Amino acid sequence: MTTMGPIPEPAAGCTPAPPAALTADQQTKYDQFLAEVRAWESLPASSAKGAESTPLDDNERLWMTRECLLRYLRATKWNLAQSSTRLRSTAVWRREFGTEKLSASYISPENEKGKQVQLGFDKSGRPCLYLLPQNQNTKPGPRQVEHLVYMLERTIDLHPPGQESLALLIDFRNTSSGGTPGLGIAKQVLDILQNHYPERLGRALLTHLPWYVSMFLKAINPFIDPVTKEKIKYNEPLTDHVPAAQLMKASGGDIDFKYDHDLYWPALEKLAAERRAKRVERWEKAGKVIGESEIYLWGGEESSIGGGQAAGNAAVTDAAVSIGAAAPVEAAPLSNAAVVTPPVHAPGANGDAALADGVAKLDVKDGEPVKPAA
Q1: Could you please report the per-residue DSSP string of 58-91?
Q2: Which of 45, 178, 324, 363 has the fewest CB atoms found within 10 Å of its own CB?
Q3: Cβ-proximal residues to 236 (8 Å cutoff; 6+ apart), any chain
Q4: Residue 367 belongs to some domain of the structure
Q5: Overall average pLDDT of the 221-237 stretch
Q6: Whole-model pTM?
Q7: Which of 2-6, 14-18, 355-359 has the lowest mean pLDDT?
């Protein structure tokens, strides 16, 4: 099989597991969190001290889905205060970073050699994002980080309904131990994942590891959280995780994929833009509410939550008040200290080990406060 562009759908039978039902206590906390977030009217425009607050726009309200709120609750072991701080921090980071403003034409020079490729889905329907540092073609700079975030957002655009996580396929082949800027930059995107994309890592598949990365991983293995450890696989046959029909031949699959930027890049943008446009259309049709179902928005077989917006708002408020919580009020201003900005890691000889360390830190333990990556 030959392809020059992204694959639109997972292979037959490769579907995500249904989400676990919420307990009564979890449902109550979600209702309280939703009531609070629906009361937000504005947020700081940046993390700068004294930054002006500006109203939430439609893109931000659309981003704050039911599943988005639940991801933050799960990441904090259902701690409402921490969930609120983290969600607000990410919303401010998205404004400051400009996630909604990154364009295909601006990012295009970064991917001319195909160092990042979204191609295929794993056996659980997770979209696969390849990181191929051997195809590095630019010098370190802000646009390398923007490129990685752009590709992450496009990968999320292509999620099948009901799937919230992605699979990272990191191939170290033909990568030297020194002077590899791509690996240092890749570490930054993993820091961003940890702080601003909670619960998004479903699988990290590391292949062709150099000896120095393998030694480092053995040293830190006892300290890796068991849940995270289960998600990271080293030098395993990728066909154990990804159907051969959706995996590059270079990685052991059946797809004869040759990266051609002039063909792949517009095809990826076209497919992602079509998916985004349909989401916006569904969201607007359903009432443009915060807390909409991602399954509905991504085209799945689930009814809209926002069809009865007024009734839904009243129900959420009643649920919060019934257990003794105050009705939704304007949230307190976000302190600048709460905004977590991922540090910039200089690329270099330790890039490979730093990347592997970053993967190990992607998912913090439930209940642990999120800390900036070291």
Answers
A1: HHHHHHS-HHHHHHHHHHTTS-HHHHHHHHHHHH
A2: 324
A3: 205, 207
A4: no
A5: 78
A6: 0.81
A7: 355-359
